Task: structure prediction
Amino acid sequence: MMKFFLMPILLSAFTLAVSGQKRFKSQIDSLLNRLNQVEGIAKVDDLNEVSQLYAEDNPKKALSYISQANNLANKLHYGRGGILSMLNKSYSLIRLNELEKAFNYAKKALIWSKKSNYLAGQIIAHKNLSFYYRLNSNYSEAFNHSFLALKLSKPLKDKSVESGVLSEIGEIYYRQANYSKVLEYNLKALAFAESSGNKSKIFSSIRNIGSLYNEMEDLDKALSYYLSSAKVYQQIYGRIHPGFLLNIGQIYF
Result:
C-alpha cells in the first residue's frame, strides 16, 4: 500500500526534475552571460556567485570559478572578494572530502577577515570550521566555532545569517543523537529563515527537520517536511534536490 502511494510522488518528482533542470540551466546561463559583460569587482562577485551555485552538486566545477575569482580579486586588490573566494573554496573542498585543505583555507580566511574587520567573512569562516570539526567528531570545537558565529551574527539585520548558524548547531546535536536539541535549534532556524524570506535557509531547516523525524521514525511528519523542502528547493534552483528521492526511499523501503 505504501509503495502504491509512493508512485504519484515519484512521478511528481520526475516532472519537477525535468522542468527544474531547465530552470537551473537558465539561471546559470544568465550569470555566465553577465560574466562576459562585467569587469572588475562586479566580475569577482559574479564568479563567486556562480561557484556557490555549483558548490553543492558539482564542487569540482565550483573550484574552477573560485580560482578565477581569487586571481582577479588579487589583481584588483579586492580583499573581501578574495576572502569570499577562499571561503567558497573551503566549502567546496569540504564537499569533496578534502577536509585538511578545507580547514587551512577557512583558517586563512578567518585571519584575513579579522584583519580587515570583515564580519560576514568571520561568520562564514567560523561556520566552515564548525563543519570541519563536526565531520571529525570534535564536537567541543564545533560548538565553539558555531557559538562564536552565532554571537557575531546577532547584531546583523539579516536574520538568515543567524538561521544558518542555528542549523549548524542543530547538525552538531544530531551527530550526538540529542534529538530534542536538534528540533529546538532547527525550529529556531526555520523561524529566522522565514522572517528573512531566505528560501535557501528555509529549505535547509525544513529538510533537517524532515531528517530528524525520519530518524525518530515519525514517518508521516518526515514525509510532510521532505515534500515541503522539495518544493522550496525547486523554487530556488528550478530542479529537484538530488537527495529527495533517497529521502523518500528511506521512508518507504
